[in-house]
Specification:
about 325 residues; mainly beta; 23 strands
Protein backbone atom coordinates (compact mmCIF):
# COMPACT_ATOMS: atom_id res chain seq x y z
CA UNK A 1 0.00 0.00 0.00
CA UNK A 2 1.33 3.40 -0.95
CA UNK A 3 1.57 5.84 1.93
CA UNK A 4 -0.54 8.99 1.68
CA UNK A 5 0.97 12.49 1.97
CA UNK A 6 0.40 13.68 5.46
CA UNK A 7 -1.26 16.86 5.98
CA UNK A 8 -3.11 14.28 5.60
CA UNK A 9 -4.21 12.70 2.35
CA UNK A 10 -5.87 9.47 3.48
CA UNK A 11 -7.33 6.42 1.80
CA UNK A 12 -10.70 6.42 3.54
CA UNK A 13 -13.18 9.23 2.96
CA UNK A 14 -12.69 12.04 5.45
CA UNK A 15 -15.84 13.42 7.05
CA UNK A 16 -16.72 16.94 6.00
CA UNK A 17 -18.16 18.98 8.85
CA UNK A 18 -20.30 21.52 7.04
CA UNK A 19 -20.89 23.55 10.20
CA UNK A 20 -17.16 24.21 10.44
CA UNK A 21 -15.84 24.28 6.90
CA UNK A 22 -17.53 25.78 3.84
CA UNK A 23 -15.98 23.44 1.26
CA UNK A 24 -18.29 22.45 -1.60
CA UNK A 25 -18.78 18.82 -2.53
CA UNK A 26 -19.11 17.17 -5.92
CA UNK A 27 -22.58 17.68 -7.40
CA UNK A 28 -24.16 15.36 -9.95
CA UNK A 29 -27.53 15.61 -11.69
CA UNK A 30 -29.03 13.75 -14.62
CA UNK A 31 -32.02 12.81 -16.76
CA UNK A 32 -32.43 9.33 -18.24
CA UNK A 33 -34.71 7.79 -20.91
CA UNK A 34 -36.55 10.97 -21.88
CA UNK A 35 -38.42 11.89 -25.08
CA UNK A 36 -38.37 15.57 -26.02
CA UNK A 37 -40.69 17.08 -28.67
CA UNK A 38 -39.36 19.37 -31.38
CA UNK A 39 -38.48 22.70 -29.78
CA UNK A 40 -38.60 21.23 -26.28
CA UNK A 41 -35.81 21.64 -23.75
CA UNK A 42 -34.52 20.04 -20.58
CA UNK A 43 -32.16 21.81 -18.21
CA UNK A 44 -29.72 20.95 -15.45
CA UNK A 45 -28.22 23.38 -12.91
CA UNK A 46 -24.48 24.07 -12.87
CA UNK A 47 -22.36 25.32 -9.99
CA UNK A 48 -21.04 28.51 -11.58
CA UNK A 49 -18.01 28.49 -9.27
CA UNK A 50 -17.03 24.90 -10.12
CA UNK A 51 -13.43 24.24 -11.09
CA UNK A 52 -14.37 21.54 -13.61
CA UNK A 53 -17.74 20.81 -15.22
CA UNK A 54 -18.28 17.47 -16.93
CA UNK A 55 -21.40 17.21 -19.09
CA UNK A 56 -22.68 14.42 -21.27
CA UNK A 57 -25.75 13.86 -23.43
CA UNK A 58 -26.67 10.82 -25.51
CA UNK A 59 -29.30 11.75 -28.08
CA UNK A 60 -31.03 10.33 -31.13
CA UNK A 61 -32.60 12.96 -33.39
CA UNK A 62 -35.44 12.16 -35.78
CA UNK A 63 -35.75 13.35 -39.38
CA UNK A 64 -32.06 13.35 -40.33
CA UNK A 65 -31.65 13.47 -44.11
CA UNK A 66 -28.78 13.42 -46.54
CA UNK A 67 -28.20 16.80 -48.16
CA UNK A 68 -25.51 18.56 -50.10
CA UNK A 69 -23.66 20.53 -47.45
CA UNK A 70 -24.90 20.86 -43.88
CA UNK A 71 -28.42 19.83 -42.86
CA UNK A 72 -30.83 21.88 -40.79
CA UNK A 73 -31.54 19.18 -38.23
CA UNK A 74 -29.57 19.65 -35.03
CA UNK A 75 -29.44 19.33 -31.27
CA UNK A 76 -27.35 21.39 -28.91
CA UNK A 77 -26.05 21.94 -25.42
CA UNK A 78 -26.25 25.58 -24.29
CA UNK A 79 -24.47 27.14 -21.32
CA UNK A 80 -26.97 29.66 -19.95
CA UNK A 81 -27.76 32.17 -17.26
CA UNK A 82 -30.97 30.93 -15.66
CA UNK A 83 -31.91 34.41 -14.44
CA UNK A 84 -31.51 36.43 -17.65
CA UNK A 85 -31.96 33.57 -20.09
CA UNK A 86 -28.80 34.62 -21.92
CA UNK A 87 -26.90 31.90 -23.78
CA UNK A 88 -23.18 32.26 -23.10
CA UNK A 89 -21.97 29.45 -25.37
CA UNK A 90 -23.38 26.48 -27.21
CA UNK A 91 -22.17 23.20 -28.68
CA UNK A 92 -24.27 22.08 -31.65
CA UNK A 93 -24.43 18.69 -33.40
CA UNK A 94 -25.43 18.58 -37.10
CA UNK A 95 -25.00 16.25 -40.07
CA UNK A 96 -24.17 16.78 -43.71
CA UNK A 97 -22.57 15.50 -46.90
CA UNK A 98 -19.43 16.78 -48.57
CA UNK A 99 -20.77 16.23 -52.13
CA UNK A 100 -24.13 14.50 -52.05
CA UNK A 101 -24.65 12.37 -55.17
CA UNK A 102 -20.96 12.28 -56.02
CA UNK A 103 -19.21 8.90 -55.99
CA UNK A 104 -16.59 10.30 -53.60
CA UNK A 105 -19.13 11.86 -51.25
CA UNK A 106 -18.50 11.43 -47.54
CA UNK A 107 -21.05 11.98 -44.82
CA UNK A 108 -19.98 13.77 -41.60
CA UNK A 109 -21.19 14.92 -38.23
CA UNK A 110 -20.33 18.51 -37.36
CA UNK A 111 -19.68 19.72 -33.82
CA UNK A 112 -19.77 23.51 -33.55
CA UNK A 113 -18.84 25.88 -30.74
CA UNK A 114 -20.59 29.25 -30.78
CA UNK A 115 -20.26 32.28 -28.53
CA UNK A 116 -20.79 36.01 -28.97
CA UNK A 117 -17.42 36.43 -30.71
CA UNK A 118 -16.30 32.93 -31.75
CA UNK A 119 -17.56 30.21 -34.05
CA UNK A 120 -15.52 27.02 -34.47
CA UNK A 121 -16.63 23.83 -36.26
CA UNK A 122 -15.04 20.40 -36.57
CA UNK A 123 -16.35 17.64 -38.85
CA UNK A 124 -16.10 14.00 -37.77
CA UNK A 125 -16.45 11.10 -40.23
CA UNK A 126 -15.56 8.05 -38.13
CA UNK A 127 -16.81 6.70 -34.83
CA UNK A 128 -20.12 8.59 -34.92
CA UNK A 129 -23.62 7.63 -36.03
CA UNK A 130 -24.39 9.43 -39.27
CA UNK A 131 -27.92 8.21 -39.96
CA UNK A 132 -30.23 9.02 -37.06
CA UNK A 133 -28.99 6.70 -34.30
CA UNK A 134 -27.67 7.66 -30.90
CA UNK A 135 -24.60 9.87 -30.50
CA UNK A 136 -22.97 10.86 -27.24
CA UNK A 137 -21.45 14.32 -26.77
CA UNK A 138 -19.16 14.66 -23.76
CA UNK A 139 -17.65 17.91 -22.53
CA UNK A 140 -15.03 18.70 -19.89
CA UNK A 141 -14.85 22.43 -19.20
CA UNK A 142 -12.34 24.26 -17.03
CA UNK A 143 -10.52 27.59 -17.11
CA UNK A 144 -8.12 26.42 -19.85
CA UNK A 145 -10.78 25.40 -22.36
CA UNK A 146 -13.42 22.81 -23.16
CA UNK A 147 -12.47 19.35 -24.37
CA UNK A 148 -15.10 17.58 -26.47
CA UNK A 149 -15.62 13.91 -27.33
CA UNK A 150 -18.34 12.42 -29.54
CA UNK A 151 -19.32 8.98 -30.68
CA UNK A 152 -21.78 6.18 -31.22
CA UNK A 153 -20.35 3.20 -29.33
CA UNK A 154 -16.89 4.48 -28.45
CA UNK A 155 -16.31 8.22 -28.30
CA UNK A 156 -13.56 9.91 -30.30
CA UNK A 157 -11.80 13.13 -29.31
CA UNK A 158 -13.21 16.02 -31.35
CA UNK A 159 -11.02 18.86 -30.12
CA UNK A 160 -10.45 21.59 -27.56
CA UNK A 161 -12.61 24.68 -27.80
CA UNK A 162 -12.45 28.04 -25.95
CA UNK A 163 -13.31 28.08 -22.25
CA UNK A 164 -16.97 28.68 -21.53
CA UNK A 165 -18.11 31.67 -19.52
CA UNK A 166 -19.37 30.98 -15.96
CA UNK A 167 -22.94 29.71 -16.27
CA UNK A 168 -25.46 28.30 -13.84
CA UNK A 169 -27.56 26.18 -16.21
CA UNK A 170 -26.99 23.72 -19.04
CA UNK A 171 -29.80 23.36 -21.56
CA UNK A 172 -30.38 20.50 -24.03
CA UNK A 173 -32.61 21.26 -27.01
CA UNK A 174 -33.19 20.32 -30.63
CA UNK A 175 -35.25 21.31 -33.66
CA UNK A 176 -36.62 17.79 -34.16
CA UNK A 177 -37.99 15.15 -31.80
CA UNK A 178 -35.25 13.76 -29.59
CA UNK A 179 -34.81 10.52 -27.74
CA UNK A 180 -32.52 11.22 -24.81
CA UNK A 181 -30.83 8.14 -23.37
CA UNK A 182 -29.23 10.30 -20.72
CA UNK A 183 -28.22 13.88 -19.97
CA UNK A 184 -25.90 14.44 -17.03
CA UNK A 185 -23.78 17.13 -15.38
CA UNK A 186 -21.11 16.72 -12.73
CA UNK A 187 -19.40 19.70 -11.10
CA UNK A 188 -16.07 19.48 -9.32
CA UNK A 189 -15.79 22.24 -6.72
CA UNK A 190 -12.94 24.71 -6.66
CA UNK A 191 -11.59 23.60 -3.31
CA UNK A 192 -8.86 26.23 -3.31
CA UNK A 193 -11.35 29.04 -3.84
CA UNK A 194 -13.53 27.74 -1.00
CA UNK A 195 -10.57 27.95 1.39
CA UNK A 196 -9.71 31.59 0.69
CA UNK A 197 -9.89 33.98 3.63
CA UNK A 198 -9.68 37.74 4.01
CA UNK A 199 -6.01 37.36 4.90
CA UNK A 200 -4.01 37.99 1.73
CA UNK A 201 -0.72 38.96 3.37
CA UNK A 202 0.54 36.82 6.25
CA UNK A 203 3.09 39.50 7.20
CA UNK A 204 0.20 41.85 7.89
CA UNK A 205 -0.57 39.77 11.01
CA UNK A 206 2.68 40.78 12.69
CA UNK A 207 1.25 43.83 14.43
CA UNK A 208 -1.80 41.85 15.56
CA UNK A 209 0.37 39.10 17.07
CA UNK A 210 2.63 41.66 18.75
CA UNK A 211 -0.38 43.08 20.59
CA UNK A 212 -1.90 39.69 21.49
CA UNK A 213 -1.59 38.20 24.99
CA UNK A 214 -2.87 34.81 23.79
CA UNK A 215 0.05 32.32 23.79
CA UNK A 216 -1.51 30.27 20.98
CA UNK A 217 -1.78 33.17 18.55
CA UNK A 218 1.24 33.59 16.33
CA UNK A 219 3.30 31.92 13.61
CA UNK A 220 4.11 28.22 13.88
CA UNK A 221 6.66 26.17 11.90
CA UNK A 222 7.19 22.46 11.38
CA UNK A 223 9.44 20.95 14.05
CA UNK A 224 9.43 17.16 13.71
CA UNK A 225 7.21 14.12 13.22
CA UNK A 226 6.51 10.59 14.35
CA UNK A 227 4.67 8.79 11.54
CA UNK A 228 4.01 5.33 10.18
CA UNK A 229 4.99 5.82 6.54
CA UNK A 230 2.89 2.82 5.48
CA UNK A 231 -0.14 4.94 6.36
CA UNK A 232 0.87 8.57 5.86
CA UNK A 233 3.85 10.77 5.03
CA UNK A 234 4.32 14.53 5.38
CA UNK A 235 3.12 16.64 2.48
CA UNK A 236 5.57 19.39 3.35
CA UNK A 237 7.27 21.31 6.13
CA UNK A 238 4.37 23.57 6.95
CA UNK A 239 4.23 27.03 8.41
CA UNK A 240 0.92 28.48 9.53
CA UNK A 241 -0.62 31.25 11.60
CA UNK A 242 -3.05 30.62 14.41
CA UNK A 243 -5.55 33.40 15.07
CA UNK A 244 -8.50 33.53 17.42
CA UNK A 245 -11.70 32.72 15.55
CA UNK A 246 -14.30 35.41 14.87
CA UNK A 247 -17.67 33.97 15.92
CA UNK A 248 -19.50 36.65 13.97
CA UNK A 249 -19.21 34.52 10.84
CA UNK A 250 -22.76 33.16 10.34
CA UNK A 251 -21.56 29.61 9.61
CA UNK A 252 -19.41 29.55 12.72
CA UNK A 253 -21.85 30.99 15.26
CA UNK A 254 -22.12 27.80 17.33
CA UNK A 255 -19.11 28.91 19.36
CA UNK A 256 -17.20 25.60 19.12
CA UNK A 257 -14.37 27.03 17.05
CA UNK A 258 -11.68 28.62 19.16
CA UNK A 259 -8.96 29.34 16.57
CA UNK A 260 -8.41 29.39 12.82
CA UNK A 261 -5.31 27.83 11.26
CA UNK A 262 -4.11 29.93 8.30
CA UNK A 263 -1.68 28.41 5.81
CA UNK A 264 1.54 30.39 5.32
CA UNK A 265 3.84 28.09 3.34
CA UNK A 266 5.81 24.85 3.11
CA UNK A 267 3.50 22.65 1.04
CA UNK A 268 5.16 20.09 -1.24
CA UNK A 269 2.15 17.95 -2.14
CA UNK A 270 -0.31 19.96 -4.25
CA UNK A 271 1.88 22.99 -3.66
CA UNK A 272 0.61 24.92 -6.70
CA UNK A 273 -2.88 25.04 -5.21
CA UNK A 274 -1.90 26.22 -1.74
CA UNK A 275 -1.49 29.98 -1.32
CA UNK A 276 -0.68 31.94 1.86
CA UNK A 277 -3.83 33.06 3.62
CA UNK A 278 -5.91 29.96 2.85
CA UNK A 279 -7.78 28.20 5.64
CA UNK A 280 -5.87 25.14 6.88
CA UNK A 281 -8.27 24.17 9.64
CA UNK A 282 -9.80 25.03 13.00
CA UNK A 283 -9.03 24.30 16.63
CA UNK A 284 -12.19 23.40 18.54
CA UNK A 285 -12.47 24.08 22.25
CA UNK A 286 -12.79 21.15 24.69
CA UNK A 287 -13.24 21.05 28.47
CA UNK A 288 -9.55 20.24 28.92
CA UNK A 289 -7.00 23.02 29.20
CA UNK A 290 -4.60 23.27 26.25
CA UNK A 291 -6.31 20.39 24.44
CA UNK A 292 -8.30 20.97 21.26
CA UNK A 293 -10.19 18.93 18.73
CA UNK A 294 -9.22 19.67 15.14
CA UNK A 295 -10.89 20.15 11.79
CA UNK A 296 -8.00 19.81 9.34
CA UNK A 297 -7.71 20.39 5.59
CA UNK A 298 -5.38 17.83 4.06
CA UNK A 299 -2.88 18.38 1.26
CA UNK A 300 -5.51 17.68 -1.41
CA UNK A 301 -7.90 20.14 0.25
CA UNK A 302 -10.27 17.55 1.67
CA UNK A 303 -11.61 18.06 5.18
CA UNK A 304 -10.70 15.72 8.05
CA UNK A 305 -12.01 15.66 11.61
CA UNK A 306 -11.79 11.96 12.50
CA UNK A 307 -10.43 11.77 16.09
CA UNK A 308 -7.89 14.51 15.41
CA UNK A 309 -6.59 16.60 18.28
CA UNK A 310 -3.94 19.15 19.25
CA UNK A 311 -2.09 19.47 22.54
CA UNK A 312 -0.46 22.80 23.38
CA UNK A 313 2.61 22.69 25.59
CA UNK A 314 3.11 26.34 26.60
CA UNK A 315 4.73 28.38 25.45
CA UNK A 316 6.28 26.94 22.28
CA UNK A 317 5.08 23.47 21.19
CA UNK A 318 1.95 22.27 19.35
CA UNK A 319 1.45 18.54 18.82
CA UNK A 320 -1.07 17.43 16.17
CA UNK A 321 -2.30 13.87 16.76
CA UNK A 322 -3.70 11.70 13.94
CA UNK A 323 -4.25 8.42 15.85
CA UNK A 324 -6.03 6.50 13.09
CA UNK A 325 -3.03 7.08 10.84
CA UNK A 326 -0.43 6.52 13.57
CA UNK A 327 0.94 10.00 13.04
CA UNK A 328 2.07 12.96 15.11
CA UNK A 329 3.31 16.30 13.78
CA UNK A 330 4.89 18.87 16.05
CA UNK A 331 5.20 22.59 15.40
CA UNK A 332 7.25 25.24 17.21
CA UNK A 333 6.19 28.81 17.73
CA UNK A 334 8.32 31.35 15.91
CA UNK A 335 10.02 33.90 18.15
Amino acid sequence: MKASPLNLRVYSSALCVAAFMAVSSMCSRCFAETNIPSGGVITLPIDSSAKIVDAEARVSLSGIRQVNGIGKQHWQLEWCDSVTGAVNESFTVQWGNESFGDIFDRRFMRVSYNSADTCVSIDVNDGVNLYGGYNTLSLRADASGTQVWAGDNEEVFVGTFPAVAPSNMLRLSGNRKMKVAWFAVECEPDKAKALLTDITDIDSLSAYFAASNDPLEGMWSYLDRDTDERRAVPGGNYTFAIVRHDDSHPQMADGKIAYDIIYAGGAKVNSKEWKPGMLKGHLLATRFANHYDVVWVDSMMDVMDDELSVDFTPPLILSFEFPIYHARLRFAKQQ
